[in-house]
Structure formats: C-alpha cells, structure tokens
Write a structure and sequence with these properties.
The complex is a heterodimer of chains A (301) and B (672).
Chain A: H1 2-25, H2 35-44, E1 48-51, H3 56-75, H4 90-111, H5 117-146, H6 151-157, H7 163-183, H8 202-205, H9 211-237, H10 242-266, H11 272-296
Chain B: H1 2-17, H2 23-49, E1 54-61, E2 65-71, H3 73-96, H4 104-126, H5 130-148, H6 155-186, H7 192-200, H8 203-221, H9 230-236, H10 239-263, H11 268-291, H12 296-324, H13 327-362, H14 373-376, H15 378-391, H16 398-413, H17 419-451, H18 468-486, H19 488-494, H20 496-500, H21 515-542, E3 548-551, H22 569-572, H23 574-580, E4 585-591, E5 602-608, H24 610-628, H25 638-671
Antiparallel strand pairs in B: 1-2, 4-5
Helix pairs in contact in B: 1-2, 1-4, 2-3, 2-4, 3-4, 3-10, 3-13, 3-18, 4-5, 5-6, 6-7, 6-8, 6-9, 8-10, 9-10, 9-12, 10-12, 10-13, 11-12, 11-17, 12-13, 12-16, 12-17, 13-15, 13-16, 13-18, 15-17, 15-18, 16-17, 16-18, 19-21
Classes of the chains: A mainly alpha (301), B mainly alpha (672).
Organism (chain A): Niastella vici
Keywords (chain A): Membrane, Transmembrane, Transmembrane helix
Membrane topology (chain A): Multi-pass membrane protein
Chain lengths: 301, 672
C-alpha cells in the first residue's frame, strides 16, 4: 500500500523534473515541476474529437491501458513491505498485465486506419517484445541469487556482499533503466519531442486521442515512469526502517528523473532500424548478470 | 460395458443412417450423434477423471489377442477436451455447412467422417492394444483427410489433403516401427508390454524407443521440423474442421507423447532436455513464421505450432522434474502442459470459428484485403479480441494461467540445480518470453488488420454478421475462457488426478504447488476487470456533458479517403520481417516506380517455410533427379513394356535356379 501511495505522489512531479532538467541544461528556465500534471488536468476537462474510422476499441483502450499500469503498480513492493498484490511469481503477472495495456494501445492505434499510427504501433510491438526476454532473464537471475520468486521477497533478501554483487547491482540498474526507456518510449529509443510523425513511436500512436483519453494516456506514462523508478529504488532499499527508505525512495526517483533528463539532453536517438538489435542486446547484459550470479553461487568452481 | 456397446452402436447406426436422409436433416442427425457420443464417452471419462481405473477386455481375435480398454485420468482428460471441441465444432459446422446444401453426397461423406473422427479419437484415448490402436489411428487419419478435402474441386485443397495423408502415414510408420519392436521382443500387443520391456532393458533402448514414438506423435502434434502438413491442411479445411483439427487432432499427438511417457520407463532427464530443445525451436519458429503470413487461417495454423511448443516446454519441465526427483517441478510442468492443452483447444477453435465467420462474410482469407470488419461484425470482433488476448497469454484470461504455471516451473527449476539445467532454464525463459512478445505482434497484426481500420479491398456484398446459431457455441467457449481465467485454482484442482499419474511421489490435491499464487491470480484478474470497468464508467460520467466531435483521422491535414493510405498488415510487420529475413525464405516480386512518367508499382512477398524447403522439397528434388535418370525405360513402346515383363519373370524364375547351380558348383569345387 505504501509503495502505491508513494508512486502516485512521485508520478505527479516525475515528468516535471525531466522537463526542468532538460530546460536547465539547454540554458532555459523551464516550467515548474508540476506543469505536466497541470496539463493533464486541463486535458481531462476538455471535450474530444474522434476519428470517424474508429470503433469501440478506440473508446475502451485508454481506460484499459491506465488500468493495466495501476494493476502493475499494485505489485511493486516497498523495501520490506509488500505491495498490495504479492504472490510467488508476481513479476510474471507484472510483465503480462503491462502487456494487456500495450496490446490495447497497439490495436487502438490500428483502429484509426491512419497511415502514421500503424507505424508507431508496429515499432512499439516490436521493441517491447524484444525487451521482454531481458526482463525475464534479469528476474530469473535474481530468483537464482535469492531463492525467492516474488518482487518483495527478492528485494528484501537482496544484499550486496562481494565485488561481483556490486557489479551485478550496476548491471541490473542499467537493464531496468533501459527497459524503462523502451517501455516509455524515451531517448535513446524514441524521442518524445520530435515533431515528425515518421520518427515517433509512442507519440504517433496517440495522434488521434484527445481530451479525457489523452489525459489518461499521458498520466499513465507518468505513472509508468514512477513505477519503474520505484522498481530501481527497491534494488537499493533493502529492509531499512521507513524513515530511511522513504527519503531513499524519493532520492532515487529524483536521481532517476534527472538522469533521464541529462540522458535526453546529451544523447541522440538511435537509428530507428537499429533499435531492435540494440534492444535485443539488452538480453545479453541480462545474461551477463546471470553468469555473475552463477559466479557468486560458485557454480564455476 | 453397456456404455461401450451403446457407443459403438450409435456410431454405426448414424453412419448407416446419414446417407439416406434428407439433406436438411443430415447436419442435425450428425449433431445429435456427436452429442450422444459425447455424453456416453464423457460418463466414462468423468469417472476416470475422479481417479477410478476403468478396465475392460474385448475378446478380440486370434490376430490381436485380448483387446484391453483402459481409461485412466489422462484418457479421461483428453476425452473430455475432445468431446467439448467436437460439440462446439458440430454446432458451428451445422450453420457453416448450410451454404453447401446442394452437394448432397459430399455432405453425407463429410458428416460420416465427422462422426467417425470423434469416435476414433475417443477410442485412441482408451484402447491399449497396439494393433487396434493403429487401426483407430488409421481411421482417424482417413476421416480427417475426408474432412479436409471437402472442397476437393479446388486444386490447393486436394494438394493439402494429399500432403496430410502422406505425412499421417509417415507418422503411422514410426508408430508401427515402435510397436513391432516391442511386439517382437515381448510377444504381446498390450501397452503394458512396453512398460515391461523398457524397465527390463538398458536405458538406451528405452530412450531410442521413446523417440521412435515421439517422432510419430510429433508429426501429428506439429513439432518443428515435422510440422509441414499443418499450414496447408488448416486453411484448406472448412473452418469448423480447422477448429477441431487445431483444437484436438493435433492434441492427440500430445496425448500419445504423454501416454508413452507413462508407459516407457527410461532416462527422463535426457528425454526432458531433448523435448525442451525441440519445443523451444517449435515455439519460436512457429510464431516467427505466423507473423509474416498473409492468409488468416495459415497464420492461425502456425500459431498452433507455437502453442504446441509451449505445451512441449511444460512436458519437458515435467520430465526433467521426474529425472531430478523434483516433485514440485514435475507437477507444475505437467499441470502447465495439460492446462495449456485445454486452453489452446478453447481459444484456437474459437479463433478458427471467427476466421470462418470472416470467410463466409468476405469470401477471402487474405489479411491484406480485409479490414474494418469490426463495423459490420461486432460479435465476431469481440470474440476474436478475447481469443487473441487469451492466446497471447494476457490476464485476465485462461492463456495467462497456463503460461504462468510454465514460468513457475522454470523458476522452480532454478532452485538448487546444476549448471547444465540452469543454462537450459535460462534458454527456456528467453524462449518463452520471446514467444510471448512475438505472439503479441502476431495477434495485434491479425486483429488490427482484419477487424479495424477500413476495408483494403472493395467487397461485392457488404460483409454481414454471422447468424446467431454460429455465435452461440462461440460464446460458450468464451465463457469457459473467462471462467478459467477467473477461477484457476478450481480448474487446477480438477487436474490433480491426471497429473498425479506422472508425479514422483504422491501429493495431496489440496496442497498443489503454486496453488496460492493461482487463487490470488484469479482475484487479481477479477480486480482487473472491475477496475477497468470502473475507470471506463468514470470516464463516461466525466465526459457525458463534454463536446464530442467526429472527424477524419489525422493525416497531416489530408482529409480525403484514406483506405489506400492506411497501414497494411505487411507494413505493420515490415520492421520485423527485415530483421528476421535471414532466417526465412521469402520470395519477393517488386516493380519499382521509376521514370518521368511512372507506371503502377507493386510489391509482393510470398513467405515460405525454410524447414519445408530443406527437409521436404530438397530431398524430393534429389529423389526426382535420381529417378529421372531411369526415364529412358518409360519410352512409350508397348513392345518394350512386354519385354520388361518377360525379363522380370525370367529373372524371378532364373535367379533361384542360378543360385542353386552356383551352390552346386562351389560344393563341387570344394570337393576338388
């Protein structure tokens, strides 16, 4: 429950911090950190324009998308505290419930019969598909290391002892950050601020959404960011008492948001047709983690 | 006993009756027979599912010996699946075949084959005499051949049918080889002889024997590289037959493999590893090819191959569990495999029925031509959507439960194991996750381009929604899909008997591994549906008084007609196709737009199966080349043919004489 509330709170300013970081690095003052959420609230109050081509899929997809993200957030633990949902193998549910949202997002893009949105849908489907194995191998390695199969138990019993485990922690963070970037369609996979339909992924899929639906989709993106941030923060929280973990949590989230802002300011987007290979290569980083775990467990001795 | 007699009598009577009745009643009689047969065999099956070992001996003949009819929980499980799929198939087919009423004789044959198929599948699950088993298997192969070639005036249908017939017989050949081997060694046709033989003999013989059977059954189940008949047979058959075929006929191969696992006592670890390898290959290869297909039913056929791979992963985990003495792993693995068998029979038959609705409305299966069917066919769209979500393994539907169990098995395998197993498990995780992702690409493509957007092709008649008679069995399947998704624990408990046949040690059915997780998953699924409903309601409430406008899709300012501009199925998977191209054989025809006054440009892609190219086409070509060398013999001269006959007869008569003569000569020389 505690992680759920904290993630909701984080989601209110996470996007703002990214934008603020980006504007500061480019020498502007930039909007306040609550500007994105204000934009969303304004969108929620607006009327909508629907494409004549669309069917009921287009109407229900945004609601299901945000539901899937909320369900996924419920699974995220908070250090020693369980998430609202916690059972053995809950991260499988986590990955698949996010998949439901993705599925509906993709088909709602196809529902418009547009010449652009299919493009984004195709890329989203392809890229997130390649990110999946990396996530499962990462979780498999952590399972092997800790002997547990739920988020909460894994994070609670994860402790860093040797040099190898520090390297593993760094690699795991790297994989999770990259998965976040893929799942949220951010740099270096996708550039959300591009203004050409041909070069977008996520943005092009929601070209025809407007008003309340668009607000929900944008808020879901913020939630997703905060959710992955919480996942990464969990790697480092351990089972400290609450008065320590809550500051760690917010600190990690801030750090994460600033890192994304910096990353987006100083890197260019990958070439679209090399993205898939790049994302698949994430699996090899995950495999490296797996080998590291084997080393720790002394399987090679 | 009375039930078995009634079963046989019903089958025979209805087969005799069908050709002689009015064409209007043929379908109805078939449906009634299917229902009756289903009830009769389900009585036995349900008893068997409760753990009662049913055994009955027919007297048999001097050739076969006693014919044992044994039904254990595994048989019961498969009989129930078969009967349910046949029920929905018959009900759907009743409406589907109405347009073919002018072909009376053809229809009679179709009905008879349908009844025979159900009867033979049911008997395959319970007969345990090798000769009679093979006879039932042959009846099954022939009757499904008759069902496939219903539209035999089309050339490709006939080709697909003959392809199926040949491959079925290769399958029978392997089975026969295994059975003859055992019969020679043990002098018995009972399945129990297999158990005795494999326990008494070195482990190696057991493994070889198992793989002899495995290849036979794998051809039927569609494991790569034995899958090549499947993508032809499914599109050629009428949709209810494709549904039944994908739902249960290929599952009889799975039944065979499981039955042999029970009968053959051997080195399960080796078997497990090999099955895991083949299954991963099957799963990934199947879905990779499914994505690039242009024909909807062919796409579904390849996706069946993928799902067979997932079932295989479950089976292999179970085997590894037995081999390692890990009770939990074996239970989770086999439960996952059996549940996925059930699940796949549900959503795949539903998908094929939906494809049938689309076919009868639009008269094409070409995905590139379809589009926008959702507007006219809202029920079919909804049903296809549910089935696609389920087949992608997404919650809150049944596909997730079985995939979760298999993931659970993989993670269980991670505990306290050795390096070899760990590497295999990681391959399994990678494969299963990749399969899940690829399946999503495949079914977003199928659903999106068939039902959404606008039509990519001008239809002569506006497509209409299917009649209610077709939709009722389909909604029945959806109910089960949702029920399994919401109450997984309940279903799993019912599985404990067939699974406990495989378990290393006995386990109490109340104490199922992953049981707690499953009940929470059921709750989560319900919560998901409720929450989505709630959010949708809030959205509806909030936007009730807002202005709503309908306008053209965003096209950078272009507002004309956009059906030619919308993203096609081919372009949707283009990025993927480019990436995976080295692994496929895709034949392309391209006409670029060039010059100052350009003509129409065009591009065609014809996906072909590389495994088929190498394993079927290439050897055939070599054989043909070899036999072509002897073509001079066939010169069309009658005199020559008579000469061949004379030469043949002379040789047949002459060789024994020659041998005798030579023997005498050698003896004579020896004496000297």
């Amino acid at each position: 429950m505690i992680s759920f509330i904290l993630i909701i709170i984080t989601s209110l300013f996470f996007g703002g911090i990214i934008i603020r970081t980006k504007s500061i690095t480019s020498g502007r003052k930039g909007p306040g950190i609550f500007q994105p959420i204000k934009d969303i609230i304004r969108l929620l109050k607006k009327g909508s324009v629907y494409s004549k081509t669309t069917s009921f899929i287009f109407q229900i997809a945004p609601s299901i998308y945000i539901t899937s993200v909320i369900m996924a957030i419920m699974i995220i633990p908070f250090g020693g505290y369980k998430g609202i949902i916690s059972f053995k193998g809950d991260f499988v549910f986590f990955a698949y419930v996010l998949g439901v949202g993705k599925f509906f997002n993709i088909i709602s893009a196809l529902d418009t019969g547009s010449s652009f949105e299919g493009m984004g849908a195709s890329r989203e489907a392809l890229f997130s598909m390649f990110a999946e194995p990396a996530f499962f191998i990462l979780m498999g390695s952590l399972t092997l290391l800790t002997g547990h199969t739920s988020f909460q138990q894994i994070f609670a019993s994860l402790h860093f002892g040797s040099y190898i485990s520090y390297i593993l922690g760094v690699l795991a963070t790297f994989v999770l950050v990259m998965i976040t970037m893929v799942e949220n369609s951010r740099m270096p996979i996708d550039d959300p601020t591009t203004h050409l339909e041909l070069t977008m992924i996520h943005e092009v899929m929601i070209l025809d959404n407007s008003g309340f639906d668009l607000g929900m989709i944008l808020y879901a993106t913020n939630l997703k960011f905060a959710m992955y941030g919480a996942l990464i923060a969990n790697l480092f929280m351990g089972t400290f008492p609450l008065y320590l973990t809550i500051p760690i949590f917010f600190g990690m989230q801030m750090l994460f948001a600033i890192a994304i802002g910096l990353l987006e300011s100083f890197t260019a987007r990958f070439r679209m047709n090399h993205n898939a290979q790049y994302i698949l290569a994430l699996s090899s980083v995950s495999l490296l983690i797996f080998l590291g775990v084997l080393l720790i467990l002394g399987q090679f001795s | 006993m009375e039930i078995i007699t009634a079963f046989i009598l019903t089958t025979l009577l209805s087969i005799l009756l069908v050709p002689f009745i009015n064409v209007r009643w043929k379908g109805l009689v078939t449906v009634m027979t299917v229902v009756l047969l289903a009830i009769l065999s389900s009585i036995i099956a349900i008893e068997a599912m409760h753990g009662k070992q049913i055994e009955y001996f027919f007297r048999g003949s001097s050739v076969t010996g006693k014919i044992p009819l044994r039904a254990d929980a595994l048989s019961g499980f498969f009989i129930l699946i078969i009967n349910f799929t046949f029920l929905t198939g018959a009900l759907y087919g009743l409406q589907y075949m109405k347009v073919y009423r002018d072909q009376k004789a053809n229809l009679s044959l179709h009905c008879i084959s349908f009844i025979l198929l159900q009867a033979s599948l049911n008997s395959i699950c319970s007969l345990q005499n090798t000769i009679v088993f093979l006879i039932a298997w042959e009846i099954m192969a022939l009757s499904s051949f008759m069902l496939i070639i219903f539209e035999h005036n089309k050339r490709e249908t006939l080709n697909a049918g003959i392809n199926f017939l040949i491959q079925s017989h290769i399958c029978i050949m392997f089975l026969m080889l295994g059975f003859i081997w055992v019969a020679l060694k043990m002098d018995s046709f009972d399945f129990r002889a297999i158990t005795v033989y494999s326990t008494n003999n070195p482990l190696l013989a057991g493994v070889v024997l198992f793989f002899c059977f495995f290849i036979g059954f794998a051809i039927k189940a569609g494991f790569v590289p034995f899958h090549t008949w499947l993508p032809y047979a499914h599109p050629a058959a009428p949709s209810h037959v494709s549904g039944v075929m994908s739902g249960v006929i290929i599952k009889i191969g799975i039944y065979g493999i499981l039955r042999m696992l029970l009968q053959i006592k051997s080195d399960y670890l080796v078997i497990g590893y090999i099955i895991l390898f083949i299954s991963l290959l099957t799963g990934i290869y199947g879905v990779m090819l499914a994505i690039i297909q242009h024909n909807l039913k062919r796409l579904l056929a390849y996706s069946s191959i993928e799902n067979i791979g997932i079932i295989g992963i479950g089976i292999s985990l179970g085997c590894i569990g037995i081999g390692k003495g890990n009770n939990i792993l074996s239970i989770v693995g086999f439960t996952g495999a059996l549940l996925h068998t059930l699940n796949h029979s549900l959503f795949k038959s539903l998908l094929f029925y939906c494809a049938g609705n689309v076919y009868q409305a639009a008269h094409t299966m070409d995905i590139e031509k379809l589009g926008g069917m959702g507007k006219q066919m809202s029920h079919t769209t909804f049903l296809f959507l549910i089935a696609s979500l389920a087949i992608c393994g997404l919650p809150p539907f049944n596909g997730f439960v079985s995939e979760f169990l298999i993931y659970n098995g993989l993670f269980t395998g991670l505990r306290g194991s050795d390096k070899v197993l760990l590497s295999w498990i990681v391959c399994g995780l990678f494969g299963l996750a990749l399969i899940g992702g690829l399946a999503m690409l495949c079914f977003t493509k199928a659903f999106g381009s068939v039902f959404l957007g606008t039509a990519r092709h001008h239809f002569h008649q506006t497509p209409k929604e299917a009649v209610i008679g077709k939709l009722i069995p389909m909604y029945g399947i959806v109910l089960l899909i949702i029920a399994i998704g919401l109450f997984p624990k309940f279903i799993i408990t019912a599985f404990s008997k067939p699974v406990s046949l495989f378990a290393v040690n006995h386990f109490p059915s109340s104490h199922l591994p992953a049981g707690d997780a499953l009940s929470i998953i059921g709750l989560c699924s319900a919560a998901f549906i409720l929450l989505a409903g709630l959010i949708y309601l809030i959205r509806k409430r909030m936007t009730a008084n807002r202005s709503v406008e309908f306008n053209a899709t965003w096209g950078c300012g272009y507002v004309g007609s956009t059906e030619k501009m919308q993203y096609t199925a081919g372009s949707f998977v283009r990025a993927y196709r480019k990436l995976a191209e080295p692994l496929f054989s895709i034949y392309k025809k391209k006409k670029e737009i060039e010059g100052v006054f350009p003509q129409n440009g065009q591009q065609e892609t014809h996906p072909y199966d590389k495994a088929e190219e190498w394993l079927i086409d290439y050897p055939l070509r070599v054989l043909k080349g070899f036999f072509n060398k002897f073509i001079f013999l066939q010169n069309g001269n009658l005199q020559f043919y008579i000469l061949y006959g004379v030469v043949f007869i002379t040789l047949m008569l002459g060789i024994p004489f020659l041998v005798e003569y030579l023997k005498a000569l050698f003896q004579f020389l020896n004496k000297l």
